[in-house]
UniProtKB/TrEMBL annotation:
Annotated source species: Marinobacter xiaoshiensis
A UniProt-annotated Pfam family: DUF938
Name used for this protein in its record: DUF938 domain-containing protein
Database matches in InterPro entries: DUF938, SAM-dependent_MTases_sf
Length: 199
């Protein structure tokens, strides 16, 4: 916590590079759902710099209030009240959404939850709309760096259901439900920004 606000140094480190990528994807006015908002630092930075978007934060019901101090401090007109959303819920019951962003969630969720997130995103997006997913990912079962391998071990020690996801599994999951991988951007610190497009 900093100044009474929850704080993620990783968010401070990555928010500008992520912004530069998602600004090119979410370039039309619309309502943007963020899944797993966490502290709210991303929501505030992105909403400040993308005023054509109405930012809709959300998080697991156990965590959905965590972002309130950042949102209240920023007091931006284009950030909505955060919604409690567990991606495993069978019906997300959301207002119309035009795009989805999520950072550092796929390795925290169990694999069935990741599949549920993809199904839910596919269900709420219209053809042509995008889902940007940021985080570390594996390729062909291989870690992209020793630090990602260590991070995966650390995650699994906390909870064996967590772990860095493989691009092959994500692509298979997306392809089956009409979410096609459009771009895979290399990002600092062995992270990726994946852009999925609803077809
Ligand atoms: C590592 S934090 C990332 C937070 C923020 N996006 C960031 O980049 O700092 C993972 C987030 O995923 C959320 N999460 C985990 N399981 C979830 C679920 N089943 N449905 C929705 N959110 C979930 C957690 O509550 C947490 O906010």
């Amino acid at each position: 916590m900093t100044d009474g606000k929850p704080y993620s140094q990783a968010c401070e480190n990555n928010k500008q590079v992520i912004l530069e990528k998602i600004a090119t994807v979410f370039n039309e006015p619309g309502i943007l759902l963020e899944i797993g908002t966490g502290t709210g630092q991303h929501a505030v930075h992105f909403a400040q710099h993308l005023p054509h978007l109405q930012w809709q934060p959300s998080d697991h019901p156990s965590n959905a209030q965590l972002c309130m101090p950042w949102l209240e401090d920023a007091n931006l007109p284009n950030i909505n009240t955060p919604l409690p959303l567990d991606v495993s819920a069978p019906d997300w019951r959301l207002p119309p959404i035009n795009g989805v962003f999520s950072a550092n969630t796929a390795h925290i969720m169990s694999w069935p939850e990741v599949e549920a997130m993809f199904r839910g995103v596919a269900a709420i997006l219209n053809a042509g709309e995008a889902f940007c997913l940021y985080g570390p990912f594996n390729y062909g079962g291989q870690f992209t760096s020793p630090s990602n391998r260590q991070f995966d071990t650390h995650l699994k020690q906390q909870n064996p259901e967590m772990g860095i996801r493989d691009m092959d599994d994500l692509k298979r999951t997306g392809d089956a439900i009409g979410l096609v991988l459009e771009s895979d951007f290399e990002m600092p610190a062995n992270n990726r920004l994946l852009v999925w497009r609803r077809c």
